[in-house]
């Protein structure tokens, strides 16, 4: 038995979906524990691409059960769309395959309206959110006025809560932002209709995960976003509104911390970021364009161009600390082919001082410059390599340098988007935290 958590070690889009899909064949259950449909996880199997926003990336394996934990914020409209979309691809997302926590909070139309109105009002100082209502939904959860999945089972309660919340939200939307108010009736009608469709999926995720742990079954916890988008540990305020770090696998599903055996940090071989916020290693030259183009770095949720830069190891080292990462998966290594020389950031410089940690003060982080180490690149196509030894010498040296800097072993190397374009040196389901 082994329970594995997958977390993003950078600013999201590290390739978590691909790794979760890959490891799902070893898992009885795959469970999402935070975030919402701000996530876009891409899986490519036999040339067919699927992008998942809410349903866990284990859904392509017919024997894997997928769960959405209490820590996730759920837009029911998107969830139903995703279920239908998968069904049209002959993946039947029945209640036998998918369960939804009764304690998860629901994203409501007013959350999206507030998210977008706030971004519009902020103008140049906007966060660059995905506009999916994530922040406002978590705000309501913490303010204790949120609407939970369980409320879908009681239409009267649902109606009352929507009406009450709308009085406050409409005041805010109209008087503060100058936006149009939302009408309660169509929202109530729509949510009551969706409740009927979703009811068979609703259950107690904590009980189910706990049962699986007791039976000794393998569980895969699928993180969304990345450590530097974490509301506590990220580049605040340019972050998301949840905690994408590994500890949330417990609070976001309802199990204890002793149940986690292995924390896999997903590290893209270079760095990307969507939305605003400091980015020490950002490249705005032709090298950045090369990474953006070769890496097809467009947001899987919003389609926005991702900002690109060299690998930032202080950023990843910070992530390894706050997550307790036990092994790393390096993704998109193939994208670096043809770039020579390569650079890796090993520390920051600020006002003549060398810094090895990511500072909390945003103005300090924004004025840091990277201290790079140069590494010889390679020109060989590595996308067909299936063992570490099949990689060119310089590629192996790049991987070894990352391992050596972080003092963490590499368990997986991804050399292409396809499931089988992978080198697995150590299956995280076999290894335990010692
Ligand atoms: P996630 O949000 O962490 O799941 O990552 P995304 O799906 O948003 O972005 C990762 C992108 O890189 C997707 O388009 C993947 O298909 C693709 N990808 C994943 N691993 C590799 C890889 O090793 N090489 C290449 N070239 N593409 C990859
Ligand atoms: P996955 O799971 C990359 C970013 C947004 C924005 C900030 C806040 O695919 O890695 P939000 O809508 O969450 O309030 O936006 O967070 N962001 C992501 N960036 N990958 C993601 O998810 C992201 N989810 C949110 O671009 O900068
Ligand atoms: Mg993504």
- Write out the CATH superfamily name of the largest domain: Adenylosuccinate Synthetase, subunit A, domain 1
CATH C-level category of the largest domain = Alpha Beta
Number of strands: 20
Gap between N and C termini, in Å?
A: 15 Å
Question: Main sheet: which strands, in order across?
Answer: 9-7-5-2-10-1-11-15-19-20
Number of domains: 2
Number of helical segments with 4 or more residues: 12
pLDDT averaged residue by residue: 96
Helix amount = 25-40%
Q: Within the CATH hierarchy, at the fold level, what is the topology of the largest domain? A: Adenylosuccinate Synthetase, Chain A, domain 1
Q: If classified by CATH, what would the architecture of the largest domain be?
A: 3-Layer(aba) Sandwich
Major sheet:
10 strands, mixed
Q: Which cofactor or ligand species appear?
A: guanosine-5'-diphosphate, 6-O-phosphoryl inosine monophosphate, magnesium ion
* CA-based gyration radius: 22 Å
Low-confidence stretches: none
Top keywords for this entry?
434 residues, alpha/beta, Adenylosuccinate Synthetase, Chain A, domain 1, Adenylosuccinate Synthetase, subunit A, domain 2, 2 domains, ten-stranded mixed sheet, four-stranded mixed sheet, 20% strand, globular, binds guanosine-5'-diphosphate, binds 6-O-phosphoryl inosine monophosphate, binds magnesium ion
């Amino acid at each position: 038995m082994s329970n594995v958590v997958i977390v993003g070690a950078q600013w999201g889009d590290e390739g978590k979906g691909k790794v979760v899909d890959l490891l799902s064949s070893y898992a009885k259950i795959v469970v999402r524990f935070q975030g919402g449909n701000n996530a876009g996880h891409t899986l490519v199997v036999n040339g067919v691409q699927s992008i998942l926003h809410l349903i866990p990336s284990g859904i392509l394996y017919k024997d894997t059960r997928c769960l959405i934990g209490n820590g996730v914020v759920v837009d029911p409209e998107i969830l139903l769309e995703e279920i239908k979309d998968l069904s049209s691809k002959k993946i039947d997302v029945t209640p036998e395959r998918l369960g939804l926590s009764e304690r998860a909070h629901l994203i409501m139309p007013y959350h999206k309206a507030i998210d977008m109105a706030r971004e519009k009002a902020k103008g140049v100082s906007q966060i660059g959110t995905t506009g999916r209502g994530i922040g406002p939904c978590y705000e309501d959860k913490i303010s204790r006025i949120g609407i939970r999945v369980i409320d879908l089972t009681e239409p009267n309660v649902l109606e009352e809560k929507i009406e009450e919340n709308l009085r406050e939200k409409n005041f805010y939307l109209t008087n503060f932002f100058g936006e149009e108010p939302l009408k309660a009736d169509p929202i109530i009608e729509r949510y009551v209709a969706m409740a009927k469709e979703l009811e068979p999926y609703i259950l107690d995720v904590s009980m189910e995960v706990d049962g699986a742990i007791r039976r000794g079954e393998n569980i895969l916890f699928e993180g969304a976003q990345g450590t530097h988008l974490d509301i506590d540990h990220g580049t605040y305020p340019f972050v998301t509104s949840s905690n994408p770090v590994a500890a949330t696998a417990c609070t976001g599903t309802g199990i204890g911390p002793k149940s986690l055996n292995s924390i896999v940090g997903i590290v893209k071989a270079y760095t990307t970021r969507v939305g605003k916020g400091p980015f020490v290693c950002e490249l705005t030259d032709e090298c950045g364009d090369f990474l953006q183009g070769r890496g097809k770095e467009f947001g899987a949720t919003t389609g926005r161009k991702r900002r690109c830069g060299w690998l930032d190891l202080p950023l990843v080292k910070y992530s390894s600390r706050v997550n307790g990462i036990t092994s790393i998966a390096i993704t998109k290594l193939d994208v670096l082919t043809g770039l020579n020389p390569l650079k890796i950031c090993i520390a920051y410089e600020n006002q003549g001082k060398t810094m090895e940690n990511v500072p909390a003060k945003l103005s300090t982080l924004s004025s840091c410059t990277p201290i790079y180490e140069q590494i010889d690149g390679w020109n060989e196509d590595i996308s067909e390599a299936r063992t570490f030894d099949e990689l060119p010498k310089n590629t192996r040296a790049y991987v070894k340098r990352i391992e050596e800097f972080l003092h963490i072993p590499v368990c997986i190397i991804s050399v292409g988007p396809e499931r089988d374009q992978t080198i697995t040196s150590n299956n995280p389901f076999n290894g335990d935290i010692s």
